[in-house]
Amino acid sequence: MSDKIDEISYLILKLTQDGIPFSSSPFEDIAEKLGISEQEVVDRLVDMQKNGFIRRFGASIAHRNIGITANAMCVWNVPDEKVEEVGKIMSSFPEVTHCYERPRYPNWPYNMYTMVHSYNRNECIEIAKKISEAVGIDDYSLLFSEREFKKTGVRL
Amino acid sequence: MIDLDEKDKEILNEIQMGFPLDIHPYRILSQRLGIPESELLDRLKRLNAEGALRRIGPVINTRRVGGSSTLVAISVPEDLLDEVASLVNSYPEVSHNYLRPFEYNLWFTVSAKDKETLAEILEDIRSKTGLPMLDLPTKRLFKIGVMFNVR
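ok -> structure tokens follow
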């Protein structure tokens, strides 16, 4: 596994991060700019995916605009020794898009986070209940997003 | 809200998960979806213009590329919310910023090119707002697969 990204691959990320064009040969312009073939652009993207520099290549959907408006961050207080086991179960729910362990603070007991997206709040509440039963943790809270102040992709 | 027909939904599901890395990716997709490439391109342009589709591109693993990121929560009084949210948004390193009514109510993610830059941004926000703040970097990642089942 390659440890550092080289300059050409880095530039490919920079040139594609705002989205590739909707045209028959979407990598043509990038290839020309970098002085390499379209096939090399594609091959490098495949390699970067294999090496973990990119998580996936594909569409980012504006979920709110198409009706997936309920978005809950569920925070859980899970005993430290159970985090590994609980994290695996939580991740197995298809409705859970993200699952992380994060640090606690004296005034903040929650150490696990799951994001749940759905068409309405009740569905999110139901999903959280199902997860709670599956993992046997009932110290949790649902934080629904009420306003989106900003959403861009992660930028280089 | 945007109206989607069945083909639009099929397209949105397909391009999230199964986008082919090929020099002619839309040709391959159009064959899978059973529509001409020109129709697929027209639909994608429309979905993008209407705001259903943000972009097609790489989802970058910041940490792997050498960067540093975290989730931050601030406890902001109601009347300061717009002001603090604008301050937070002003950093290009902030990628998501949401109001989630709770004890800590402003939740945002920061991805910076290195640890030092990330620390500077947090310190800057802390000193400018003087509000209680939680720095919540990932300790363990179990799942990251933002994929929406469009139905």
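Residues 6-50 of chain B form one domain.
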